[in-house]
């Protein structure tokens, strides 16, 4: 099936999200970073007692649950404005960009240098690994029917609209697999904080995705609990990827730099091919770009706090 986007019709009567909701979100982010810095020593001690497989599976599971956490506002808000949706998607892209650079690319280069003893070979490993990761996602997108990220409220029970919503939801679940893989691989190195920061990044990015998925289901007439349940299921794909990633680097340690580079390529593909283009499609480029900047800085702040 063609990979061309087919945006769903947008409701002209979508009510803007109250400003207090946006201010509250920023305050919650600041509180979250502060809380992470406080509980990090305890998390680090607990993580040290777990195997790579155990912590990779657990962390990807928690990151996947954040998809459902993001859907919680549907119990209070039925709709969000397109500009807010684009800003949230931009935020997710910024978080993923920061995580890709600092928790996947740099560790991949460091591990490759340790294994192969030179910067030149490290660059080769990074380049080939990222090409394989991006290429795998491209092939998957070409072969598997799906919808792009943008979705808008709709009404009625038009079978074509229903099909497009479910293809969109399938796309979200599809993208959760390489994200879970990245979390699992992230725990293969010596620094546990890399994996935990990556899991936090994926969790933060999952939250706006979860909200968009839940609102899409509400627009088809599903109940709030049904929308919440389906959103939760899309997030639970991530532990599968986490198990695969952690298992691979546990059984074959030499694959660690390759796995990190592969995950980086897959993540960059999702960011560039899906999230950023869709956040710019409806004329809210400024809001989306601000979201990218905020997301990048937030993840960097979390990384520094750890």
Description:
With 306 residues, the protein is an all-alpha fold. The chain has helices at 19-48, 52-70, 82-116, 119-143, 159-186, 192-219, 224-235, 238-251, 256-279, 285-305. Helix 6 packs antiparallel against helix 7. The protein is globular and about 55 Å long. 48% of the residues are buried.
Short descriptors:
10 helices, disordered N terminus, single chain, 306 residues, mainly alpha
| SSE succession | HHHHHHHHHH
Query: For the report, how would you describe the main beta sheet?
Result: none
Strand content: under 5%
Q: Class by helix and strand content?
A: mainly alpha
Counting copies of identical and different chains, the oligomeric state is: single chain
Helix content: over 70%
Radius of gyration (Å): 19 Å
Q: Provide mean pLDDT, rounded.
A: 75
Distance between the termini: 44 Å
Record field, number of beta strands: 0
**Per the principal axes of the C-alpha atoms, what is the gross shape?**
globular
Topology:
Blueprint: H1 19-48, H2 52-70, H3 82-116, H4 119-143, H5 159-186, H6 192-219, H7 224-235, H8 238-251, H9 256-279, H10 285-305
Helix pairs in contact: 1-10, 2-5, 2-6, 2-7, 2-8, 3-4, 3-6, 3-9, 3-10, 4-9, 5-6, 5-7, 5-8, 5-9, 6-7
Gist of the model:
With 306 residues, the chain is an all-alpha fold.
């Amino acid at each position: 099936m063609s990979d061309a986007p087919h945006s769903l019709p947008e409701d002209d009567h979508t009510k803007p999200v109250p400003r207090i909701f946006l201010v509250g979100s920023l305050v919650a982010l600041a509180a979250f970073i502060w809380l992470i810095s406080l509980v990090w020593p305890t998390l680090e001690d607990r993580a040290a007692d777990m195997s790579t497989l155990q912590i990779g599976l657990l962390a990807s599971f928690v990151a996947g649950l954040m998809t459902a956490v993001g859907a919680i506002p549907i119990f209070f808000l039925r709709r969000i404005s397109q500009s807010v949706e684009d800003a949230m998607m931009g935020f997710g892209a910024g978080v993923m960009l920061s995580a890709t650079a600092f928790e996947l690319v740099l560790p991949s280069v460091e591990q490759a240098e340790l294994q192969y003893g030179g910067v030149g070979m490290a660059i080769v490993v990074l380049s080939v690994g990222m090409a394989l990761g991006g290429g795998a996602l491209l092939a998957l997108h070409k072969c598997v029917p799906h919808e792009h990220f943008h979705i808008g409220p709709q009404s009625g029970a038009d079978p074509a609209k229903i099909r497009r919503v479910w293809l969109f939801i399938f796309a979200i679940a599809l993208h959760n697999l390489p994200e879970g893989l990245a979390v699992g691989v992230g725990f293969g190195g010596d620094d546990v904080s890399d994996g935990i920061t990556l899991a936090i990044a994926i969790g933060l990015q999952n939250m706006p995705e979860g909200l968009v998925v839940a609102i899409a289901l509400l627009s088809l007439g599903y109940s709030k609990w049904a929308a919440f349940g389906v959103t939760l299921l899309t997030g639970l794909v991530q532990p599968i990827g986490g198990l695969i990633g952690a298992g691979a680097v546990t059984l074959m340690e030499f694959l660690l730099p390759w796995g990190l580079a592969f995950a980086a390529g897959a993540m960059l593909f999702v960011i560039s091919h899906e999230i950023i283009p869709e956040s710019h499609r409806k004329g809210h480029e400024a809001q989306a770009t601000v979201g990218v900047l905020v997301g990048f800085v937030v993840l960097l702040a979390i990384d520094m706090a750890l």
